[in-house]
């Protein structure tokens, strides 16, 4: 918009005239994508616009996606994150520290195994949620995704587990999925 159009707009507002308002609107309003709308409205679910945009930027299709596809993208990002955490736990378990059972490492090994199982379960339940969501059933997916958010806390509660960093990453992306699914279920 050049400055003379801007001036004209301003002038027409000031005079409350019916001058070319449509011209002004066209040039001042920006198109709000579903991504913009979603990311700016998840505050009630403890997800900041900043984190939301950053997380969705991992999949370039987000920019043009509709709401349903955004939910699927967030679920898939959550699933790949869980898969990543899971393989980290697995390599910890197969590392020399835990492959041979010594009395001192036993509680930690048990904890890791439990944690591995939790992530196994969460991956399959998130896949199920994604199917639900792709069929438009947000209400069914909601409790399942809510449960996923709690998995890292359960893992952190195991004795001697030092997974916090990765765990936290999963928490945040799971919280995003929960927020998106809850927002769309409403
Ligand atoms: C999500 O992942 C599944 C399984 O890998 C894939 O079939 C589907 O196309 C993915 N959807 C999106 C939106 O990324
Ligand atoms: C998991 O999520 C965290 C936080 O959003 C991110 O830093 C990390 O790169 C993600 N990992 C994968 C494999 O997506």
From TrEMBL:
The UniProt keyword set, sorted, is: Disulfide bond, Signal
Please list the coiled coil stretches: none
Recorded hits in SMART domains, A to Z, give: PMEI
One family name in Pfam for this protein: PMEI
Q: Which residues form the Pectinesterase inhibitor domain?
A: 30-180
* InterPro entries reported for this sequence: Invertase/methylesterase_inhib, Pectinesterase_inhib_dom
**Signal peptide coordinates:** 1-24
Record keyword Signal present = yes
Q: Which GO terms describe its molecular function?
A: enzyme inhibitor activity
NCBIfam families in the cross-refs: PME_inhib (TIGR01614)
Q: Which family does it belong to?
A: Belongs to the PMEI family.
The record's annotation in PANTHER family points to: OS01G0111000 PROTEIN, OS02G0537100 PROTEIN
Question: By what name is this protein known?
Answer: Putative invertase inhibitor
């Amino acid at each position: 918009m050049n400055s003379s159009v801007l001036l004209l707009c301003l002038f027409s507002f000031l005079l409350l005239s019916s001058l070319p308002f449509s011209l002004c609107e066209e040039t001042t309003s920006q198109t709000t994508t579903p991504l913009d709308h979603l990311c700016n409205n998840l505050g009630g679910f403890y997800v900041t616009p900043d984190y939301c945009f950053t997380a969705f930027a991992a999949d370039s299709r987000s920019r043009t996606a509709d709401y349903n596809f955004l939910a699927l993208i967030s679920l898939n990002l959550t699933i790949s994150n869980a898969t990543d955490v899971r393989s980290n736990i697995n390599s910890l378990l197969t590392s020399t520290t835990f492959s041979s059972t010594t009395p001192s490492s036993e509680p930690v090994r048990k904890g890791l195994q439990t944690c591995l199982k939790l992530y196994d379960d969460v991956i399959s339940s998130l896949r199920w949620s994604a199917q639900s969501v792709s069929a438009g059933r947000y209400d069914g997916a909601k409790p399942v995704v809510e449960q996923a958010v709690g998995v890292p806390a359960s893992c952190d509660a195991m004795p001697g587990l030092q997974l916090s960093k990765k765990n936290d990453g999963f928490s945040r992306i799971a919280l995003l999925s929960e927020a998106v699914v809850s927002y769309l279920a409403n």
